[in-house]
Amino acid sequence: MTESPQFFVLTPKDCADVLQRNHVGRLAFMNREIVDIEPIGYVARGGWIFFRSAYGAKLESLAHNPYVAFEVDEINGPLDWRSVVVHGTIYVLPHDGAPLEQREYHRAVDALRSFMPDALTVRDPVPERQIVYGLHIDRVDGRMAQSSAKAQPARRVKAKAKAAPKRRGSPDGS
């Protein structure tokens, strides 16, 4: 008989560690009337997550609705994983903006180059990705599952089971 996994809420430090260890996540945003989600490279630094993209539908959508969710997962197996979800606001960081915008642009480029040194140089492997933007982190939540074969982590709080929300027209008449 297999024991059930244990579920935990990640601490803020655990969430930050997951974001720092990884460089590909998924950005969820409103694209007209539907929610869209796309994989994207990133670097997390100082309360921000920095990205770069080519101009297109995603950036047009973000210009109209800058409120997003961003998710990063570490999956070691079906019962051993960590997941961090960030909520916040996207800000485009123009290289030729006001002095404050230019300072933030350079901070973002420095962060992006910490992972991809040739980013935004003549040797850039994806030179079409010229638009730099940042997600200001407003909220971070993380969870993990751990199989019983692993030792219980000391710093995490065991997650409590939540009841599913009731839907209109459900059998209980609500």
Structural account:
The structure is a single chain. This protein has 174 residues and is of the alpha+beta class. The chain has one domain: Electron Transport, Fmn-binding Protein, Chain A (Pnp Oxidase, Chain A, Roll), CATH 2.30.110. Helices cover 20% and strands 41% of the residues. The protein is built from three helices and nine strands. It has helices at 12-21, 57-64, 99-115, and strands at residues 6-9, 24-31, 34-41, 43-45, 48-53, 67-77, 80-92, 131-146, 157-158. Strands 1, 2, 3, 4, 5, 6, 7, 8 and 9 form a nine-stranded antiparallel β-sheet that branches. The longest helix is centred in the middle third of the chain and has 17 residues, at 99-115.
Quickly list its features:
about 170 residues; alpha+beta; Pnp Oxidase, Chain A; nine-stranded antiparallel beta sheet; 3 helices; about 40% strand; globular; disordered C terminus
